[in-house]
Design brief:
5-stranded mixed barrel, about 30% strand, globular
């Protein structure tokens, strides 16, 4: 059933189960945090993270359109700074599809959204092993770049759906492609897309010895 959810547009994609720290300094999104904190005890302090399709993260009237699919975020830690900004620790919870966005009735965007169930799809479990192998090969390719140090990976999960979200969140690809992984109809579809992307990116790294987005890596 459709429901309303406060929206936080970002230049990145959030996936279920993935931790995302946020710094909130714009007045409208500080208001969002304060409104969530004011909810009665026991209610989830959740908002929706949607990737920006057209526009910028900062500035009045900055967001002109957002992608169709997003992920709800649960606040687990809130730290208020002296300048009025907030540092948040959030975790992705549940995918949703954006049905409409209201930009005028609240200080921050409010979306009418439809939450989506995760379904395995055909042969999801059998795809887990080859997807894991492709992902590890991709990580080795990253590690082989001169002057680049890749941070330690968490232990790879046995659950195919959890694995699909971990791969999607970790890959260094553009927002459009990450959104396509979030929007995948089921786990099997997501894993198949990821294997194709992992093969492509590994070959590019090996051939070009460069990265499309080095800001996600630590340099020595």
């Amino acid at each position: 059933m459709p429901t309303t959810l406060p929206l936080f547009p970002l230049g990145s994609v959030l996936f279920p189960g993935v931790v995302m720290p946020l710094r909130v300094f714009e007045p409208r999104y500080r208001q969002l945090v304060e409104d969530l904190q004011a909810l009665p005890e026991g209610l989830d302090q959740r908002f929706g993270v949607v990737a920006i399709k057209d526009g910028r993260e900062v500035g009045e009237g900055n967001v002109r359109s957002v992608y169709e699919y997003g992920c709800s975020a649960q606040m687990s830690a809130v730290d208020a700074a002296d300048d009025g900004s907030y540092s948040l620790v959030t975790t992705g919870v549940e995918r949703f599809r954006v049905l409409s966005v209201d930009l005028g009735g609240s200080p921050y965007p409010i979306g009418e959204v439809e939450f989506l169930a995760d379904t395995p799809g055909e042969d999801a479990d059998s795809l887990r092993t080859p997807a894991t192998a492709q992902f590890l090969a991709y990580q080795r390719a990253l590690s082989g770049l001169r002057g680049v140090r890749v941070g330690p990976l968490p232990q790879l999960p046995d659950d195919a759906n959890v694995l699909s979200y971990l791969i999607a969140a970790t890959m260094i690809i553009d927002v459009r492609e990450k959104h396509s992984l979030l929007a995948a109809a089921d786990t099997a579809t997501r894993l198949r897309r990821e294997q194709a992307l992992l093969r492509r990116e590994s070959l590019l790294i090996q051939e070009l010895r460069s990265l499309p987005a080095v800001d996600l890596l630590k340099r020595d």
